[in-house]
Amino acid sequence: MLAQLLTRSVHICQRPYWQADFNLPMSTFQKQYVKVMGQPSEPADKISVIGTGQVGLSCCAFLIDRRLANHLVMVDLRQEWVKAEALDFLHVSSLLASPKIETCTDASCTAGSKYVIITVGTRPAGKSRLDIAKESLELLSKLVPKLVESSPDATYVISSNPADVMTWAVRKMSGLPKERCISCGCHLDSLRFRYFLAQRLGVAASEVNAFIVGEHGDSSVPVWSGVTVGGIALLRLLPNIGRDQDEEKWQKVHEDVVKAGSSVSKIKGYTNWGVALAIVDIIQAMMTNSGRILSVGSDIQGLMGVNDSVVMSLPCILGTHGVQKVIELPLTEFEMNMFEKSKEVLMKAQCALDL
């Protein structure tokens, strides 16, 4: 099946209703009323989603619904299945700004993409994200060279498990600049962190400012020193927040963040909506070039005292072409120790790949 991904090329280009199919005879309506005044134009924002499983397909739905992709490419080995999914969207395209949707089974139809979202990989299925790194690497090693050859100037967002390690591997095998090779990282973790904090504080999650950094996984680091609600820093009220001495046991909030994905997947068998929304939010932040700060993963060598090449999440200012700036957080000694441990976990996983 993997060989097919590179050798078989089956393209099903579904045009939006405003773009004529020149293989069909011209209709009476076109002959009578439509007069050509200029050359046909192509949609400007081409986004490719590689792998349309639960997460990939959810990304497609949100990209279309938010009108972020007027040219969407869906890549999957299941030729008829992915074509049917595209048609399901196109049948209601009058509600969706009539996007152009293209489907294929290889990487060539992704040529000229502005953004490429990679979701292919192995589900944890009871194993940690780091345990399945080699399985995901086998898939990506056959895909990435073709993708980068087709879209060398695109920005790549990686969510394949484990996202941080796979992003490091993608960059190493592709030579992409660090700012255009991004792990969805701890953006989802940060959103979950805000949700659980808000539940305990009795406020809306949108009113909580808080970040998770480090690994997207068990060794993630809650930045308690940066949590604010209504302009009030929780650390000012609770100097031991998140530590063993914390009498209010706020560390339980971080434990809930770490267990959030598995608690959902134990029932559903997978998670999709949360991670897809987080990925699409990253895309939207880049496309709008509005200076938003999200905790995403990139190679932070030379930052935060890290001397090695390792992909970890820090608050990043995103722009059109990826990461514009990285914020070096003034972590407490307690948080910095956690950050160092998170780095060691990721370094160990990277070294195990033998790239």
Oligomer: single chain
Low-confidence stretches: 1-22
Order of helices and strands: HEHEHEHEEHEHEHEEEEEHHHEEEH
Which overall shape is indicated by the principal axes computed on the Cα atoms?
globular
Helix proportion: 25-40%
Which radius of gyration do the C-alpha atoms yield? 22 Å
Please report the number of helical segments: 11
Sheet having the most strands = 7 strands, mixed
Beta fraction: 15-25%
Average pLDDT rating: 89
Q: How many strands in all? A: 15
Structural class: alpha/beta
- CA distance, first residue to last residue: 23 Å
Walk across the major sheet and give the strand order. Answer: 1-4-3-2-5-6-7
Characterise the protein shown here.
- With 355 residues, this protein is an alpha/beta fold.
- Helix content is 39%, strand content 17%.
- It contains eleven helices and 15 strands.
- α5 (133-150) packs across α6 and α6 (163-174) crosses α11.
- The protein starts with a helix and ends with a helix.
